[in-house]
Amino acid sequence: MDSVRYDAERRGHRVPIALKILIAGGFGAGKTTLVSALSEVRPLQTEEILTGAGIDTDDISGVETKSTTTVAMDFGRITINDDLQLYLFGTPGQDRFWFLWDELAFGALGAVVLADTRRLADCFPSIDYFEQRGVPFVVGVNCFDGSQRFSLEAVRRALDLDHDVPMVLCDARDRQSGKSVLISLVEHVARQRGEPVPAA
């Protein structure tokens, strides 16, 4: 990849830096919705319809209207500026698809963990995964219509998060709201590495 970038720059072509970001969280937390809202290209989705065969496996309490689920990943791309592009990989939310996570996480700059206050415990596995592997992450508290609203500090206490983990309220359906979550992650990673924050 570096040699391709070098050859292109030597020929006078500007090649942006591509950064990989994971979008994680529990089943029905809004990962596919967020990737779709953010992506400037048609997103790749691996959604399948929930069927009766998954009744004993898929707990849909709190998200009863959900009719599909991601079975591999979602993919989208967003350009931050001329020098920086983010590649977004949405992870599957159910336990039975976790064998894919190590592949999806390989080379990732960091992650967004979407928290659904209707099913807050569902984001614990994602948080544990990134903490154990030292992957920087931020928590986006997805504000669904009709859901009970909690303060960020209340959610932080419930998730037992360190105070240096950024948390933001967001709406996964809204592009600008999603961008704010990504900016928060990029700034968090830059601070951890002692590097300048890229200009949006």
Series of secondary-structure elements, N-terminal to C-terminal: HEHEEEEHEHEHEH
Strand content bin: 15-25%
How many helices? Answer: 6
Uncertain segments are: none
Query: In terms of structural class, how would the helical and strand content be classed?
Result: alpha/beta
Give the overall pLDDT as a whole number: 79
The order of strands across the largest sheet is 4-5-1-6-7-8
- Give the C-alpha Rg: 17 Å
Q: What sort of overall outline do the alpha carbons produce when their principal axes are compared?
A: globular
In total, the number of strands is 8
**What share of residues is helical?**
25-40%
Largest sheet: 6 strands, mixed
Q: What's the end-to-end separation, in Å? A: 24 Å
Description:
By secondary structure, this protein is of the alpha/beta class. Helix content is 30%, strand content 24%. The chain has a six-stranded mixed beta sheet with strand order 4-5-1-6-7-8, sandwiched between helices. The protein is globular, with a radius of gyration of 17 Å.
